[in-house]
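As noted in the main text, all predictions were made from sequence alone. Below is one such record, for Cytochrome c domain-containing protein.
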Amino acid sequence: MHSSVKPLLSLGVSFLLLFSCTQEKSYTDISPVERLDPKRTEAPFPEVPIPESADLTSPRWKGIDLSPLAPLVPLSANEEQKTFVLQPGYSMTPILTEPQIKEPAAIQFDGNGRMYVLELRSYMQDIDAVGELLPTSRISRWEDKDNDGIYEEGVVFLDSLVFPRFVVPFGPGTILSMESNEDEVYKYTDTDNDGKADKKELFATGLGRSGNVEHQTSFLTWAMDNWMYSTYNSKRIRWTPDGVIQEPTGNPYGQWGVTQDNYGQVWFQDGAGGVPRNFNFPIVYGNYDVKEEFQKDFRLPFSLVRLADFEPGMRETKPDGSLNNVTGAAGSDVFRGDRLPKELVNQYFYGEPVGRIVRQVYSDKKEGITSIQNQYLDIESEFIQSTDPFFRPTDMATAPDGTLYIVDMYRGIIQEGNWTQDGSYLRTKILQYQMDDVIENGRIWRVSYEGMSRDKNKPKMFEESAAELVKHLEHPNGWWRDKAQQLLILRKDQSVAADLIKMAKSSTNELARIHALWTLEGLGLLKKDLVLSFFADKSVNIRIQGLRASETLYKYGEKSLEKSYLEMTLDAEPSVVIQALQSAYVLKITGFEEMLKKANQSNQAKGVQLVTKQLLENIAEAKKLAETKYSQADLVLYNQGKTIFDSYCATCHGVKGLGTPTGAAGGQLIAPAFSGSPRIQGHPEYIVKTLLHGLTGAIEGKEYEGVMIAMNSNDDQYIASVASYIRNEFGNSGSFVSPEYVAKIRKETEKKDGNYQYDALVAEVPKALAPQDNWKVTASSTSLQGVGSTRDPSYVFGFKGWKTDGNLKNGSWFQIELPKAAALTELAFESGEEMKSGQYKVMVSLDGKQWIEVAQAKGNQGSNTINWDNNSKAKFLKIESLEEGDKPWNMRKLNIYAR
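Prediction:
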């Protein structure tokens, strides 16, 4: 199906007629300032009531104004164009709009310059996200046939998709994509050249995740090093002629946006955190805590929309009603084109759709560490601002024509349904302005600069020879260089080896040399002599690229490079030293730990100190973990939980479990800290129920910016591993949680509707009973040495513990009498290798005479937990052995839980 967009753009057709029955005054007649006046009332509109469940003492609600207001009404693209506030010399032109496209979220270009548009047509079609996972989304492809700058001809390349996560052009008529709640990436191909994919092949597995659509994998991106990176996954994948391979990486901390700069540094865009992530060092070397990477006030946005319609509420609102702290971000691009001022080249851009701005980021690198700042902080501005509340920049890209394209989802709601639930602040503000009615729109804009015309040379790479593609590696537009490199590798054409080697060695274009190097690497033609020549080059960038590319040679047997890595740690440039150390670390070359220690002692550059210190800490932590005496089953849970936490939970809860700072001054947290939390270390039911069903509201009187959403779309193993990891990391010590326990809680709460409120959850979770002096603790084997010995039963509650006089006997018992009856439901204790208790049963009683057996279990080394469903009240609890043993019976840190 083909369609034409030009008539719409030329006539500036508006869809205001949809609202003509309720709006007497044309919305386009109202100035941008007048439209956003909180006292604007052209007609009598009802006041939006504050939900009964709202905590009016919370900073989120304090000072909220819900005066009757007219609904906000969308503009045509031509009218929206007038609302942009740009830096001098810049302009924005619509090149593709609704109704041709709807709900555009991302764009990509293929080798012939055709633009693929990811259309999320099921996203928040109402305030409750009804039908969000219906197969109504699509990927369309658009062309500017007459080369006038407008994409007028389109086809639906792939239809009936369930909220697709990305689109990756992958050669002639081929793309990669993945749907929500799926684990597989598929390759889709148009084999008959009719513009529609008709062949579907499995490309890769293990990249997906389930749950909230905002928290799933996105932006799979082919980078300069020929690996593909995506958000949330602590791994990278690579296409080879023999199949797709994977390698572990650090946690990207990205949510919606992956891009790279001219030197292959991959940048990830955090969503809820609102800031770029992992831009200091390649993610394959792990994560680093770089405290100075954000300069002062980087998180401060300068928005012209003053509706206070964002999830954190009034606590993050400036006096004028605009946003005072970046709270959501989407889409990103390091501009690498050649038709905008050179000052923009290699600078990072990203959208803040909650603030309705596009930010330009200035990077400053000193002693191997990069710090970033808003380019226009001094004048309290942004690269792009808009007074239109429906401007929602969700992606941006360097285009084949050398300019920058901005994807504008143009809609009322930009937060997913988990954040617009009944009773939420955000829902109240959305309803006040009736913003939930504005859907099914979308615009793509070209950013231009006066006196610099777009490049009208249209790409035709699919029809070009390999030799012609090699020439594009010298193109001033990074998009051309990237695409030519990718297509040369996909073709597996080694006939251009001599041309690539010549370019890598002798081109006067540094970027061309780097692309030629990586193209050789991708074709399997890279040789040691070339990387050694890069090691000796006078250019810092060339030396670094040589080190990174040489890792492939080392992996495939070129162990003689170890000497070169050692020599490169003596380089005069800190960035080169850092790269040599990171290469040695990830390759685990002989003596790499000593190499790190020596560099730490001899090189005082800030970046070298930071990298060596944290890599040495990583090594120490790995050794400590290897020595930890977890059972094999517990270790599996721990390791899986760590992977999930690093790639997902850490975004809000912090890498070290201390919470992620937010707020204008960084004095608040997105989510609560885990380290030392009595809630986390307490009864496991709390964390399992929280993971399964989510949690909203203040926690112990403290508000957090984020909302813990339900994770019950994940299986029991997933939930158990996350719970087990955070209960035993960050200095915490708690019992491990089994998948069977999760299944039990899942079944018991399957009728739970919506998130838990903290107070309600705490009220139903079993509480640990604090041992009191009036508890009577006895055992069949009593002390032979008096009070204070390890044979004193009352020591069972402490670290010292209690054990029997001799080996375990059948019928040996341990008993606690409480001062009053309680609804006992569980007990937990620890045992060591010599303290295994064997098979035992648990009994309860009201009078100490009539006993009810509630559970049986076998003692294990480490943590032991046993629970039962019989919650009838009891005053006595007894543990009794059911078998003989060749070792004493010993317990410590015993806890009793009651509902």
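The longest helix spans residues 606-627. Residues 1-36, 783-790 have pLDDT under 50 and may be disordered. These features were considered when defining construct boundaries for the mutagenesis experiments described in Section 2.9.
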